[in-house]
From TrEMBL:
Gene Ontology terms describing biological process: amino acid transmembrane transport
Name recorded for this polypeptide: Amino acid transporter transmembrane domain-containing protein
Domain Amino acid transporter transmembrane, chain residue ranges per copy: 47-450
Chain segments annotated as transmembrane: 49-68, 74-91, 124-149, 169-191, 203-226, 246-265, 285-304, 334-353, 373-391, 397-420, 432-457
Record organism: Glycine max
Assigned keywords, A-Z: Amino-acid transport, Membrane, Transmembrane, Transmembrane helix, Transport
Length: 465
């Protein structure tokens, strides 16, 4: 895809403006259109390259990072690291296809792009998938934050959270109060911004906190290597029968969830000062996030080996066997909980847009209707809060959304748009890759769902016996 970047700044703004006006019913239009209808909104000249990179990187790096070390335990060190890199390349290609067809059709949203290729049913389908995926992910974020700060009970054992460990068990260190306080003090204010670029500073801090988590984990691993406390990790998977082979595919939803960011591409692109930079934004964000993923997966699996849990954060609830181990455990958990708090509004932003587009497609833009904006924000945060307090298990739900809605958003829908090729701009190699992408996505995720369901049924049957 080649997009000219030689046009003067004024022409680029004009181009961004004309792109925004194409769909008058888009749920939240870029500022360039809003200024004509609501000049008092504020002065916005477009988002910067760095701000766009941080927002997209924050969209990518979420709770999926915690499950990646466990994928290496399943696949082995070498196939696991290769899978992370291959998934990054496929993600870059799928987003490149989205951008290419977005330019051709002058769409302003993912839903609009699907509607351009498959009509209203296609538009509604992508909106429903984004809603399912993002609500599930945000509930997971809120549960993890509650687990980290207030503790969690599993199989009769209670794991103390940060606040319980520091101050003891009180009503104000309890899970419900802590999650409610976090929701009112952090989530609600950050979710009130009407432009995603307004979150660029919190997104930069979020990425920095993820790097802090990585640095601490790497430091612990290096210390244990020199002290002889780390064994040689397993390099390849162990498959003894058909069931163990199929079980390898259960890692696919985790990889998909780790890279899913497609639902925010259009929001970031619409606000970008120079839209020709969007390809560079995507590539920079993916290089940054893939580097973090590779390192945390490598050192996390190296550090805990076969004892690596599905949520590697839970491994930091034990004695690390090094000086200041308890302090480092707390630092890891605090940095990650703070990271998720700042990821929350970036993932919430497209959730609100898509549910507004699904329910109020004929109404005026959401940015111009303060009552509708506030009502949707309050209602969605309330639903997520209730879900976080009543859903007992996060990882089964996480794998389900990764194997269904997330894989559709990230790979099946972009491939389908390319195969539809409404503007005759897809190459033969593009179409071949898209067919392979759809086949692999459907096969691997059907097997993953089957393997998870089979394991769950077998576990329930064993417990009854």
């Amino acid at each position: 895809m080649t997009i000219s970047s030689l046009a003067p700044k004024a022409e680029r703004k004009k181009s961004r403006k004309s792109k925004a006006v194409v769909n008058e019913n888009a749920p939240l239009l870029p500022k360039s259109h809003v200024q004509e209808s609501d000049a008092g909104f504020d002065d916005f000249n477009g988002a910067s390259f760095s701000g766009a990179v941080f927002n997209l990187s924050t969209t990518i790096i979420g709770a999926g990072i915690m499950a990646l070390p466990a994928t290496l335990k399943q696949l082995g060190m070498i196939p696991g690291l290769l899978a992370i890199i291959i998934m990054a390349l496929l993600t870059e290609k799928s987003i490149e296809l989205l951008i290419r067809f977005t330019r051709a059709g002058k769409s302003v949203s993912y839903a609009g792009l699907m509607g351009d290729s498959f009509g209203n049913y296609g538009k509604a389908l992508v909106q429903i998938c984004v809603i399912i995926n993002n609500i599930g992910v945000l509930i997971v974020y809120m549960i993890i934050i509650g687990d980290v700060l207030s503790g969690t009970s599993s199989s009769g054992d209670h794991h103390y959270g940060i606040l319980e460990g520091w101050f003891g068990v009180h009503w104000w260190t309890g899970r419900t109060f802590v999650v409610l306080f976090t929701t009112l003090a952090i989530f609600a204010p950050l979710a009130s911004f009407k432009r995603i670029d307004s979150l660029r500073f919190t997104s930069a801090l979020s990425v920095a906190l993820a790097v802090v988590f990585l640095v601490i984990a790497v430091g612990i691993a290096v210390v244990k290597i020199f002290s002889g406390g780390i064994a040689m990790p397993r390099l390849f998977p162990v498959t003894t029968d058909v069931a163990s082979f199929f079980r390898l595919f259960t890692v696919v939803p985790v990889f998909v969830t780790a890279y899913i960011c497609h639902y925010n591409v259009h929001s970031i692109d619409n606000e970008l000062e120079d839209s020709s930079q969007m390809r560079g934004v995507v590539q920079t964000a993916l290089v940054l996030c893939s580097s973090v993923y590779v390192m945390i997966s490598f050192f996390g699996f190296l550090l805990f080996g076969e004892g690596t849990l599905d949520d590697v954060l839970a491994n930091f609830d034990t004695n690390l066997g090094i000086p200041f181990g308890s302090v480092l455990n707390d630092a890891v958990r605090i940095s990650y909980a703070a990271h998720l708090m700042l990821v929350f509004p970036v993932v919430f932003f497209p959730l609100r847009l898509n549910i507004d587009g699904l329910l109020f497609s004929k109404s005026r833009p959401l940015v111009l209707d303060n009552f509708r904006f506030a009502s949707l924000t309050i209602a969605l945060i309330g639903v997520i809060f209730l879900g976080a307090n009543f859903i007992p298990s996060i990882w089964d739900a996480f794998q389900f959304t990764g194997a269904t809605a997330a894989v559709c958003i990230g790979f099946i829908f972009p491939a389908a748009i390319t195969l539809r090729d409404r503007y005759n701009i897809a190459t033969k190699s593009d179409k071949i890759l898209c067919v392979i992408m759809i086949v692999l996505a459907v096969f691997s995720n059907v097997v993953a769902i089957y393997s998870d369901a089979y394991a769950l049924i077998k576990q329930n049957k064993t417990s009854r016996e």
